[in-house]
Amino acid sequence: MGGLAAAGAFAGLGGTALAAAPDAMPPQVGDFLVSPAGSTPLTPDSIKLDSKPFEAVAMSPDGVVRNAEYENTVLLLRYDPATLPAETAAKSAEGVLGYTIICTHAGCPLSDTLKSKLLACDCHGSRFDPTKNGEVAHGPAVRKLPQLGLGIKDGQLVVAEAFDSRVGGDMMGEDDR
């Protein structure tokens, strides 16, 4: 099928056939954060101060858990808000920070343990500083970790802003496009 014929074949679909299923969508503003196997919204107290990263996924207000795509997994960490730089603290909820679990170098998952207080990718050795807006502390990654803006609604952690940059690996260390 030629390019124009293919375009014509999809023209009548109205774009809905290519839309992500609700459980595969990335975290959306207003979503709650839950453990990957749970459906109870997390609270700031669910995330212990200065402890290892906690894996979470988003859950829509109507109960759809967005865990069909691993790229949607969020690492939550909690720090004393007074110790965070203003830019990082602005996206936190009572010191709870949310970052993608996907390394920006080659798309590998980050470790769930901190290495010298840095988020680490064991595939190629990249390290990211969660207290500094996810900036690269050690390559080969060249792009910071996407940070999810968090808020609190009725005492529960919610998505307040989408990821601040593209989630996923660059494969060749290319800059964000």
From TrEMBL:
PROSITE patterns: RIESKE. Keywords: 2Fe-2S, Disulfide bond, Iron, Iron-sulfur, Metal-binding, Signal. Its cofactor is [2Fe-2S] cluster. GO terms for molecular function: 2 iron, 2 sulfur cluster binding; metal ion binding. Residues 1-19 form the signal peptide. It holds the Pfam family Rieske. GO terms for cellular component: membrane. InterPro entries: Rieske_2Fe-2S, Rieske_2Fe-2S_sf, Rieske_Fe-S_prot, Rieske_Fe-S_prot_C. The keyword Nucleus does not apply. Residues 102-159 form the Rieske domain. The keyword Amino-acid biosynthesis does not apply. This is Rieske domain-containing protein. It comes from Devosia insulae DS-56. The lineage of its organism: Bacteria, Pseudomonadati, Pseudomonadota, Alphaproteobacteria, Hyphomicrobiales.
